[in-house]
Amino acid sequence: MTDRSTDHPPLPGRPGTQKVGRAAGDPQAVDAGEPATVALPLVAAVARGVALVVVLPVRLLWELTAAVGGLVRRHLLEPVGRFLRRWLLAPLSWAVRRLLWLPLVWVARTLLWLPLVWLGRGFAWAARVLVWVPLVALGGLLAVVGTALGRAARWLFWRPLVWLGAVLTPVGKFLWRGVGLLGGALSWLAGGVWRMVRGLGRLVVAAVLGAWHTAGRLLRLLYRLLLRPVGRGLRWLWRHTVHPLARGARWVWSVTVVPVAHGVRTLWRATVAPATRWIRRSVLDPARLASREVFSALGLRR
Which positions ≥6 away from 39 have C-beta within 8 Å? Predict the structure, then answer.
Protein backbone atom coordinates (compact mmCIF):
# COMPACT_ATOMS: atom_id res chain seq x y z
CA MET A 1 0.00 0.00 0.00
CA THR A 2 2.82 2.47 0.91
CA ASP A 3 6.54 2.48 0.29
CA ARG A 4 7.48 3.17 3.92
CA SER A 5 9.46 0.56 5.72
CA THR A 6 7.79 -0.86 8.77
CA ASP A 7 11.07 -1.66 10.49
CA HIS A 8 11.49 0.07 13.85
CA PRO A 9 14.54 0.20 16.08
CA PRO A 10 14.38 -2.25 18.91
CA LEU A 11 13.17 -0.82 22.23
CA PRO A 12 15.22 -1.16 25.37
CA GLY A 13 12.82 -3.58 26.92
CA ARG A 14 12.45 -6.18 24.16
CA PRO A 15 13.53 -9.77 24.65
CA GLY A 16 16.12 -9.65 21.89
CA THR A 17 17.95 -6.85 23.60
CA GLN A 18 17.93 -8.70 26.88
CA LYS A 19 19.28 -11.83 25.22
CA VAL A 20 22.05 -9.87 23.47
CA GLY A 21 23.03 -8.18 26.66
CA ARG A 22 23.14 -11.44 28.52
CA ALA A 23 25.05 -13.11 25.69
CA ALA A 24 27.63 -10.34 25.68
CA GLY A 25 27.94 -10.64 29.43
CA ASP A 26 27.17 -6.95 30.06
CA PRO A 27 25.41 -6.49 33.41
CA GLN A 28 24.54 -2.79 32.66
CA ALA A 29 22.46 -3.80 29.60
CA VAL A 30 20.47 -6.26 31.73
CA ASP A 31 19.77 -3.63 34.45
CA ALA A 32 18.73 -0.98 31.88
CA GLY A 33 16.35 -3.32 30.05
CA GLU A 34 14.39 -4.66 33.03
CA PRO A 35 12.50 -1.40 34.03
CA ALA A 36 11.38 -0.74 30.42
CA THR A 37 10.23 -4.35 30.09
CA VAL A 38 8.01 -3.91 33.17
CA ALA A 39 6.80 -0.26 32.61
CA LEU A 40 5.74 -0.15 28.95
CA PRO A 41 3.36 -3.14 28.89
CA LEU A 42 1.79 -1.92 32.19
CA VAL A 43 1.09 1.62 30.80
CA ALA A 44 -0.34 0.16 27.59
CA ALA A 45 -2.57 -2.23 29.54
CA VAL A 46 -3.86 0.65 31.77
CA ALA A 47 -4.56 2.83 28.72
CA ARG A 48 -6.39 0.03 26.96
CA GLY A 49 -8.44 -0.67 30.10
CA VAL A 50 -9.41 3.01 30.44
CA ALA A 51 -10.36 3.16 26.76
CA LEU A 52 -12.37 -0.03 27.07
CA VAL A 53 -14.19 1.06 30.27
CA VAL A 54 -14.77 4.80 29.60
CA VAL A 55 -14.43 5.67 25.94
CA LEU A 56 -16.09 2.63 24.38
CA PRO A 57 -19.45 2.91 26.33
CA VAL A 58 -19.61 6.66 25.65
CA ARG A 59 -18.94 6.09 21.96
CA LEU A 60 -21.51 3.31 21.76
CA LEU A 61 -24.08 5.50 23.57
CA TRP A 62 -23.37 8.40 21.19
CA GLU A 63 -23.73 6.16 18.13
CA LEU A 64 -26.97 4.69 19.49
CA THR A 65 -28.36 8.19 20.23
CA ALA A 66 -27.40 9.42 16.75
CA ALA A 67 -28.99 6.37 15.10
CA VAL A 68 -32.21 6.73 17.14
CA GLY A 69 -32.36 10.48 16.43
CA GLY A 70 -31.90 9.87 12.71
CA LEU A 71 -34.64 7.25 12.68
CA VAL A 72 -37.01 9.52 14.64
CA ARG A 73 -36.29 12.46 12.35
CA ARG A 74 -36.57 10.41 9.15
CA HIS A 75 -39.64 8.32 9.98
CA LEU A 76 -41.56 10.60 12.44
CA LEU A 77 -40.64 14.26 12.48
CA GLU A 78 -40.26 14.82 8.74
CA PRO A 79 -43.57 13.09 7.79
CA VAL A 80 -45.40 14.95 10.58
CA GLY A 81 -43.83 18.24 9.47
CA ARG A 82 -44.78 17.66 5.82
CA PHE A 83 -48.32 16.71 6.84
CA LEU A 84 -48.72 19.77 9.04
CA ARG A 85 -47.22 22.11 6.44
CA ARG A 86 -49.29 20.71 3.58
CA TRP A 87 -52.65 20.07 5.24
CA LEU A 88 -52.72 22.58 8.15
CA LEU A 89 -50.34 25.51 7.81
CA ALA A 90 -50.79 26.11 4.09
CA PRO A 91 -54.64 26.16 4.21
CA LEU A 92 -54.57 28.18 7.42
CA SER A 93 -52.19 30.78 5.94
CA TRP A 94 -54.31 30.93 2.71
CA ALA A 95 -57.50 31.40 4.77
CA VAL A 96 -55.92 34.06 7.01
CA ARG A 97 -54.56 35.96 4.01
CA ARG A 98 -57.69 35.72 1.87
CA LEU A 99 -60.36 35.99 4.54
CA LEU A 100 -58.74 38.28 7.16
CA TRP A 101 -55.64 40.16 6.03
CA LEU A 102 -56.78 41.33 2.56
CA PRO A 103 -60.27 42.48 3.80
CA LEU A 104 -58.63 44.32 6.70
CA VAL A 105 -56.17 46.01 4.35
CA TRP A 106 -58.99 47.03 1.99
CA VAL A 107 -61.11 48.37 4.87
CA ALA A 108 -58.19 50.28 6.38
CA ARG A 109 -57.20 51.74 3.03
CA THR A 110 -60.70 52.56 1.77
CA LEU A 111 -62.48 53.59 4.95
CA LEU A 112 -59.64 55.07 7.00
CA TRP A 113 -56.57 56.07 5.03
CA LEU A 114 -58.23 57.69 1.98
CA PRO A 115 -60.72 59.77 4.07
CA LEU A 116 -57.87 60.86 6.32
CA VAL A 117 -55.79 61.85 3.29
CA TRP A 118 -58.67 63.82 1.79
CA LEU A 119 -59.40 65.44 5.17
CA GLY A 120 -55.73 66.35 5.64
CA ARG A 121 -55.57 67.87 2.16
CA GLY A 122 -58.73 69.87 2.89
CA PHE A 123 -57.30 71.13 6.18
CA ALA A 124 -54.01 72.02 4.51
CA TRP A 125 -55.77 73.94 1.72
CA ALA A 126 -58.02 75.77 4.23
CA ALA A 127 -55.05 76.60 6.48
CA ARG A 128 -53.04 77.86 3.52
CA VAL A 129 -55.80 79.89 1.88
CA LEU A 130 -57.69 81.11 4.93
CA VAL A 131 -54.90 81.49 7.51
CA TRP A 132 -51.38 81.52 6.11
CA VAL A 133 -51.89 83.83 3.10
CA PRO A 134 -53.86 86.44 5.13
CA LEU A 135 -51.26 86.26 7.90
CA VAL A 136 -48.42 86.81 5.41
CA ALA A 137 -50.26 89.76 3.88
CA LEU A 138 -51.04 91.21 7.31
CA GLY A 139 -47.41 90.70 8.39
CA GLY A 140 -46.18 92.61 5.32
CA LEU A 141 -48.66 95.42 5.98
CA LEU A 142 -47.66 95.58 9.65
CA ALA A 143 -43.98 95.65 8.69
CA VAL A 144 -44.59 98.62 6.38
CA VAL A 145 -46.70 100.41 8.98
CA GLY A 146 -44.14 99.67 11.73
CA THR A 147 -41.30 101.01 9.59
CA ALA A 148 -43.25 104.19 8.86
CA LEU A 149 -44.19 104.64 12.52
CA GLY A 150 -40.59 104.02 13.57
CA ARG A 151 -39.29 106.67 11.24
CA ALA A 152 -41.99 109.12 12.34
CA ALA A 153 -41.25 108.45 16.01
CA ARG A 154 -37.55 108.89 15.34
CA TRP A 155 -38.12 112.32 13.76
CA LEU A 156 -40.85 113.43 16.12
CA PHE A 157 -39.69 112.04 19.47
CA TRP A 158 -36.19 110.56 19.50
CA ARG A 159 -34.27 113.48 17.98
CA PRO A 160 -36.05 116.10 20.16
CA LEU A 161 -35.37 113.95 23.21
CA VAL A 162 -31.69 113.66 22.27
CA TRP A 163 -31.47 117.43 21.82
CA LEU A 164 -33.26 118.04 25.13
CA GLY A 165 -30.92 115.57 26.86
CA ALA A 166 -27.88 117.38 25.43
CA VAL A 167 -29.29 120.69 26.68
CA LEU A 168 -30.26 119.41 30.12
CA THR A 169 -27.04 117.44 30.78
CA PRO A 170 -25.14 120.40 32.38
CA VAL A 171 -28.17 121.23 34.49
CA GLY A 172 -28.46 117.58 35.53
CA LYS A 173 -24.76 117.48 36.46
CA PHE A 174 -25.17 120.62 38.56
CA LEU A 175 -28.24 119.20 40.26
CA TRP A 176 -26.46 115.90 40.83
CA ARG A 177 -23.54 117.67 42.47
CA GLY A 178 -25.98 119.67 44.61
CA VAL A 179 -27.77 116.51 45.61
CA GLY A 180 -24.40 114.93 46.42
CA LEU A 181 -23.41 117.87 48.62
CA LEU A 182 -26.82 117.85 50.30
CA GLY A 183 -26.55 114.11 50.86
CA GLY A 184 -23.07 114.58 52.38
CA ALA A 185 -24.34 117.29 54.70
CA LEU A 186 -27.32 115.18 55.70
CA SER A 187 -25.09 112.15 56.29
CA TRP A 188 -22.71 114.27 58.44
CA LEU A 189 -25.67 115.62 60.39
CA ALA A 190 -27.15 112.14 60.78
CA GLY A 191 -23.74 110.87 61.95
CA GLY A 192 -23.54 113.63 64.52
CA VAL A 193 -27.07 112.91 65.74
CA TRP A 194 -26.27 109.18 65.85
CA ARG A 195 -23.09 109.80 67.85
CA MET A 196 -25.02 112.02 70.28
CA VAL A 197 -27.82 109.45 70.65
CA ARG A 198 -25.26 106.67 71.10
CA GLY A 199 -23.46 108.71 73.80
CA LEU A 200 -26.75 109.40 75.59
CA GLY A 201 -27.69 105.72 75.27
CA ARG A 202 -24.37 104.69 76.76
CA LEU A 203 -24.88 107.14 79.60
CA VAL A 204 -28.41 105.83 80.21
CA VAL A 205 -27.22 102.22 80.09
CA ALA A 206 -24.34 102.99 82.42
CA ALA A 207 -26.71 104.76 84.82
CA VAL A 208 -29.22 101.89 84.71
CA LEU A 209 -26.50 99.30 85.19
CA GLY A 210 -25.02 101.32 88.06
CA ALA A 211 -28.46 101.64 89.68
CA TRP A 212 -29.06 97.92 89.13
CA HIS A 213 -25.74 96.97 90.69
CA THR A 214 -26.33 99.40 93.57
CA ALA A 215 -29.82 98.00 94.18
CA GLY A 216 -28.41 94.45 94.02
CA ARG A 217 -25.74 95.26 96.54
CA LEU A 218 -28.29 96.96 98.83
CA LEU A 219 -30.64 93.99 98.58
CA ARG A 220 -27.82 91.54 99.23
CA LEU A 221 -26.71 93.62 102.24
CA LEU A 222 -30.35 93.72 103.48
CA TYR A 223 -30.60 89.95 103.04
CA ARG A 224 -27.36 89.33 104.91
CA LEU A 225 -28.08 91.74 107.76
CA LEU A 226 -31.84 91.33 108.22
CA LEU A 227 -33.61 88.52 106.35
CA ARG A 228 -31.13 85.70 106.90
CA PRO A 229 -30.86 86.30 110.71
CA VAL A 230 -34.67 86.56 110.97
CA GLY A 231 -35.07 83.33 108.92
CA ARG A 232 -32.54 81.50 111.07
CA GLY A 233 -34.32 82.70 114.23
CA LEU A 234 -37.71 81.57 112.90
CA ARG A 235 -36.28 78.18 111.90
CA TRP A 236 -34.75 77.75 115.39
CA LEU A 237 -38.06 78.75 116.99
CA TRP A 238 -39.98 76.28 114.74
CA ARG A 239 -37.59 73.44 115.56
CA HIS A 240 -37.72 74.02 119.26
CA THR A 241 -41.42 74.94 119.79
CA VAL A 242 -43.89 74.02 117.00
CA HIS A 243 -42.16 70.92 115.67
CA PRO A 244 -42.05 69.06 119.06
CA LEU A 245 -45.71 70.00 119.66
CA ALA A 246 -46.68 68.67 116.23
CA ARG A 247 -44.78 65.43 116.85
CA GLY A 248 -46.52 65.09 120.28
CA ALA A 249 -49.95 65.72 118.73
CA ARG A 250 -49.27 63.12 116.04
CA TRP A 251 -48.18 60.63 118.73
CA VAL A 252 -51.32 61.37 120.79
CA TRP A 253 -53.47 60.92 117.65
CA SER A 254 -51.87 57.60 116.83
CA VAL A 255 -52.16 56.38 120.44
CA THR A 256 -55.77 57.45 121.21
CA VAL A 257 -57.88 58.16 118.09
CA VAL A 258 -56.55 55.50 115.75
CA PRO A 259 -57.18 52.49 118.05
CA VAL A 260 -60.70 53.78 118.82
CA ALA A 261 -61.44 54.15 115.11
CA HIS A 262 -60.18 50.62 114.42
CA GLY A 263 -62.34 49.26 117.21
CA VAL A 264 -65.45 51.06 115.91
CA ARG A 265 -64.80 49.73 112.40
CA THR A 266 -64.37 46.18 113.70
CA LEU A 267 -67.55 46.45 115.78
CA TRP A 268 -69.51 47.81 112.79
CA ARG A 269 -68.31 44.98 110.57
CA ALA A 270 -69.17 42.41 113.24
CA THR A 271 -72.71 43.67 114.12
CA VAL A 272 -74.32 46.22 111.81
CA ALA A 273 -72.99 45.02 108.45
CA PRO A 274 -74.27 41.37 108.78
CA ALA A 275 -77.68 42.58 110.03
CA THR A 276 -78.00 45.04 107.16
CA ARG A 277 -76.98 42.37 104.64
CA TRP A 278 -79.50 39.86 106.08
CA ILE A 279 -82.35 42.41 106.01
CA ARG A 280 -81.56 43.31 102.39
CA ARG A 281 -81.39 39.69 101.23
CA SER A 282 -84.27 38.25 103.36
CA VAL A 283 -86.77 41.11 103.45
CA LEU A 284 -86.15 43.88 100.96
CA ASP A 285 -85.21 41.78 97.88
CA PRO A 286 -88.21 39.38 98.19
CA ALA A 287 -90.54 42.32 98.77
CA ARG A 288 -89.20 44.11 95.72
CA LEU A 289 -89.56 40.99 93.55
CA ALA A 290 -93.09 40.35 94.79
CA SER A 291 -94.17 43.94 94.14
CA ARG A 292 -92.66 43.77 90.63
CA GLU A 293 -94.58 40.56 89.85
CA VAL A 294 -97.81 42.05 91.19
CA PHE A 295 -97.42 45.23 89.15
CA SER A 296 -96.58 43.17 86.08
CA ALA A 297 -99.64 40.96 86.56
CA LEU A 298 -101.90 44.02 86.95
CA GLY A 299 -100.39 45.61 83.86
CA LEU A 300 -99.03 48.62 85.74
CA ARG A 301 -95.49 47.88 84.78
CA ARG A 302 -94.04 46.62 81.53
Answer: 13
Per-residue pLDDT tens digits of the chain, which is 302 residues long: 344 444 444 444 444 444 344 444 444 444 444 444 444 677 777 777 777 777 788 888 898 898 888 888 888 888 888 888 888 888 888 888 888 898 899 988 888 888 888 988 888 898 888 888 888 888 888 888 888 888 887 888 787 778 877 777 877 787 788 777 888 888 888 888 888 888 887 888 888 787 787 877 888 887 888 778 888 888 887 777 766 777 776 776 777 777 778 888 888 888 888 888 888 888 788 888 887 787 777 776 65
d(CA 185, CA 275): 107
SS (H, E, C) the chain: CCCCCCCCCCCCCCHHHHHHHHHHCCHHHHHHHHHHHHHHHHHHHHHHHHHHHHHHHHHHHHHHHHHHHHHHHHHHHHHHHHHHHHHHHHHHHHHHHHHHHHHHHHHHHHHHHHHHHHHHHHHHHHHHHHHHHHHHHHHHHHHHHHHHHHHHHHHHHHHHHHHHHHHHHHHHHHHHHHHHHHHHHHHHHHHHHHHHHHHHHHHHHHHHHHHHHHHHHHHHHHHHHHHHHHHHHHHHHHHHHHHHHHHHHHHHHHHHHHHHHHHHHHHHHHCHHHHHHHHHHHHHHHHHHHHHHHHHHHCCCC
Q: Are 10 and 16 in contact (CB under 8 A)?
A: yes
Cβ count within 10 A of residue 14: 14
Report the chain's C-alpha Rg in angstroms: 66
- Measured CA to CA, the distance from residue 269 to residue 275 in angstroms comes to 10
